[in-house]
Amino acid sequence: MSTIKDVAAYAGVSVATVSRVLNKKGPLSEKAINKVNEAIEKLDYHPNILARSLASGKNNTIGVIISSFNDPFWSEIAQEIENTAREKGYHVLYSIAQEQMKQEVVALEELQTRQVGGIIYACGGDEDLTQQLLQQCGIPLVSLINEMDGICSVISQDRQGGVLAARHLIAKGCENIVHVSGNLDRQLSANDRTYAFMEECQKRETTCRLYQNKAGNAASPEVLRRLVNQVFCENPYMDGIFLSNDIMATLCISCSQSQGIRIPDELRIVGYDDIRISSLMYPPLTTIRQDFKLLAQRAVEMLLDQIEGKEAPMLLEIPVELVERKTT
């Protein structure tokens, strides 16, 4: 493996000159820059990021803890975090913790041992234990999607999303509505979409029956299918259904088609998130869009402000919007 000394020798310049080219600092001639870049390419040189951070006292790596890469929602969020961090000159280390405290502890420890400059936490286990764990972390933190007391947080306006979904289904003439939420026993900001949806239905004197997906994001496809089949079996007269995410909505479309239920003539379906597949399925899904790009950008910016010693807001709420397609 080539070293910075090898690059300097090949280019015929000093190690200090190579360092200035790599860090884009100091006065440099175009000729020197070209020589160093040519040497880097020829020798396939890759800087040792950890060594550079130790030498400079600044670590340009942030950690991100998410619950799953299998969930399209989190994979799209992760992509946007990566894009934003890269634009700002930072690298990202990811760690998975499937909403279990033991896994969250391991994930935090792994990232800390790699001396990341800060962590974006995008999970939702037991709030009290998680909060205690994060506050003991000792480095800058941002909670993404879930608001946490005492920790800078970036969330979606989920109450707005619940209201938009309810008003849309009722405006379409739905009178017997079902809502499938996440696990309401867990203290999550996402629960606000459910509470707002139920309150809006009650306010407008529209029947609404609630089911919970107790298994949450970790649920297997078989578990989710059983829940959807139960909903359809127990509610033969439902004419509208609001799901807490687009994956559940996709299963409802599939179940409707297998039973010969016409969408949207006999059943109207609204999802949540607007993951990429939502516009590609048939029929295209009406859903509440979360702004993945803006959520990720604000989380990264908030974390970098803390790392750089700047003041960061404790809470940012990102608006959501209804995207009407062919399922309503």
Structure in words:
By secondary structure, the chain is of the alpha/beta class. It contains twelve helices and twelve strands. The protein has helices spanning 4-11, 15-23, 30-43, 49-56, 72-87, 101-113, 127-135, 158-171, 191-203, 221-234, 246-258, 292-307; strands at 61-66, 91-96, 119-122, 141-144, 153-156, 176-181, 207-212, 240-243, 268-273, 286-289, 315-318, 321-323. Strands 2-1-3-4-5-11 form a six-stranded parallel sheet, with helices on both faces. Helix 1 (4-11) crosses helix 3, helix 6 packs parallel to helix 7 (127-135) and helix 8 runs parallel beside helix 9 (191-203). It is elongated. The model has no long low-confidence stretch (mean pLDDT 87).
Q: Estimate the global geometry from the Cα principal axes.
A: elongated
How would you sum up the major sheet? Answer: 6 strands, parallel
Indicate the structural class: alpha/beta
Instruction: Give the helices and strands as they follow along the chain.
Output: HHHHEHEHEHEEHEHEHEHEEHEE
Quaternary structure type: single chain
**How confident overall, as mean pLDDT?**
87
Instruction: Give the helix level as a range of percent.
Output: 40-55%
Strand content: 15-25%
Distance between the termini: 59 Å
**Uncertain residue segments:** none
Counted beta strands: 12
With strands numbered from the N-terminus, the spatial order across the biggest sheet is: 2-1-3-4-5-11
Q: State the helix count.
A: 12
Q: Mind telling me the C-alpha Rg?
A: 24 Å
